[in-house]
Design a protein that fits this description.
Largest sheet: 8 strands, antiparallel, barrel
Shape: globular
Helix content: 10-25%
Radius of gyration: 28 Å
Number of helices: 3
Number of strands: 11
Amino acid sequence: MFNADRKKLFLIVIGLLILFFNAAAVLAQEEENKNEFEDFAKFLKIKRVNAGYIIFGRNMFNFGRLNSYLTSGDFPTVPENYFSLGIGGHLIFDKLVIALEINHSLGRSHVSTKKYNTSVSSKYFLVNTGYLMYSKKGLMMYPLLGVGLGRLSLRVSENNTHSFQDIVIFQGRSDAYTRSLLLNMGIGVDYFFRYNKAKKGKNCLLFGLRAGCIVSASKWDWRVNGIRVGDGPTAGLTGPYIRLTFGLGGLVEKLISKAI
C-alpha cells in the first residue's frame, strides 16, 4: 500500500512538472512572437520617404483579336483607348522603391446601327518594385517592374432602345469577363513640393508621372453570364499607358501607424 501511494505521488509530481514546462514553453513562445511583432512594428514605423495619391491617365490596349472575333459575328468593335482612374502609394527604403496601385478604366460603349451594342471596361492592380536612380531637392526618378492581376469585362446588349419610352421593352444582354496575370515595365517620376529632407517629404504635396507598358503574361478562360467557356477570343490588358499622380507625402506612414 505504501509503495502504491509513493508511485501515485511520483506520477502526480511528474505530471505537474510536464504541465509546468509546457506552460513555460507556451509563455516563452508568446513572448518571442510578441517581441517579433514589436520589432516588425518598429521597422514599419521608421520614417521613410512615402506618399499616397490618386492616379488618372490613359491606357491603350491591344484588342485586335477581340475585335476580329466581334467583326466575324457582326458585332460592333470596341475602342482601344481608355481614360483610367485609380489610387496608389509607395515607400522608399534607402534606394528600394515598393509601390502599389489600383486602376480602373472608364467603360466605353460602341452604339451602332447594328442589332447589338458593345461596351468594355477593365480594372487591375499592380505591385511594383524599383530602384531610386535620382533624388535631389524633392525630385525623384526610378524605373519600375511589377506584377499584378487584371480583369477585362465585355458587355453585348440588344440594340432595341430608341427613346425613353422603350424602357418597358425587354433588352437581351450578355456580360463576359476574363482575367489575366500582368507584368509591368515603366518609369516613375515624383516631385515633392517644398521637400524637407529631415521630414522625408511628410505633408508635402506630391506631383508625379508614370509611363510604361503592361503585358498580359497569361490568361484565363472567359466567363459568360457566370459560365466558363473555353472557346473565347484571346484578349488581355496589353498596351502602353501614361498617368499622372497627385497626393500627399507621409500618407502611407500615417495609414501604417493607424493599422498597427
